[in-house]
Amino acid sequence: MSAAIAELPIPQTASDSIEEREEELQAIGYRDVKDVRIIRSLSIVALVQASLLVISFVVVVYLAVRPAQQIVIERSSEGDRVVAVNGQAVRNGIALGADKPGASDKQTLAREWTAARYAVDPLTREKDLEKMFRLMDPRAAKAYSDLLKTKGELERERNERWQAVWKPQVVEIDKADPYRVNMVGTWEITKVSKAGSGGTEREVKQLIFALHMIRDTDQGRAPRNAQTGFLVDDILDYKELPAAVATSTSSLQ
């Protein structure tokens, strides 16, 4: 009786049968369903990341090789307006072409240079003189600097504590020379009186001269030439004339 009982098979639990089933499936090449799902999810994530990297690389290359956009802005008393983008007019009735510095740029440079030279403010004088020389061709700037030192004009400005107002009256392109800008303006100077009374003197002059310009071939439009594309390379036919109100003296301290 005991021998017959010992030969009976031992009953298996549900977990034992599942483990045996999994071992059988693995033995014939099947994987766990959870492993398959995890592997598939990781594969999808890796594929998405690779796609995003490729797209970002293509965008970076496109932006790097894309030509710079040209935006033309019109400035007026009413504000700034975009006139054209990449040669395409934003509004009708405007003829567009390549950016070529012209007469208006020369006149702008002449105004900028004369303001830096003749509008004397002791608080900003050093920066103004630096700007004046920067707007000139380097050789012309060196020659003009030497001339001012020889005449002692800048030293006299400091010693007499000049303050001056420059008012341009004529800024026009010469008809015979397109690179010459004729200038006429009044120069009103207030300085310490020479009498030593502690008062001030006011002197008004009319200046007549011309600025000759050249193209800034090294940089084109740039901050050093006030975005005009030109540099001053000579000062021609300079004259100083007494204005209607020549000299006045103040005794106020």
Characterize the structure shown.
By secondary structure, the protein is of the alpha+beta class. The chain folds into three domains: 11-65; 67-99, no CATH class; 103-250, Nuclear Transport Factor 2, Chain: A, CATH 3.10.450.230. The chain is 39% helix and 30% strand. The chain is built from seven helices and seven strands. The protein has helices at 2-6, 14-27, 33-65, 103-118, 125-134, 138-151, 153-159; strands at 71-76, 79-85, 88-89, 163-173, 180-192, 200-215, 230-250. Helix 4 packs antiparallel against helix 5 (125-134). The longest helix is centred in the N-terminal third of the chain and has 33 residues, at 33-65. The model is unreliable at 246-253 (pLDDT under 50).
Write the layout of secondary structure elements.
Elements: H1 2-6, H2 14-27, H3 33-65, E1 71-76, E2 79-85, E3 88-89, H4 103-118, H5 125-134, H6 138-151, H7 153-159, E4 163-173, E5 180-192, E6 200-215, E7 230-250
Antiparallel strand pairs: 1-2, 2-3, 4-5, 5-6, 6-7
Helix pairs in contact: 4-5
CATH class of the largest domain: Alpha Beta
- Number of discrete domains: 3
Straight-line N-to-C gap: 139 Å
User: What is the approximate shape?
Assistant: elongated
- Any idea what the CATH superfamily of the largest domain is called? VirB8 protein
CATH architecture verdict of the largest domain: Roll
Strand content: 25-35%
Which range best describes the helical content: under 10%, 10-25%, 25-40%, 40-55%, 55-70% or over 70%? 25-40%
Number of strands: 7
Mean pLDDT: 80
Neighbour order of strands in the largest sheet: 4-5-6-7
- Looking at the structure, the CATH topology of the largest domain is Nuclear Transport Factor 2, Chain: A
- List the total number of helices: 7
- Report the radius of gyration as a whole number of Å: 41 Å
Structural class: alpha+beta
Low-pLDDT segments, ≥5 res? 246-253
- The SSE order reads HHHEEEHHHHEEEE
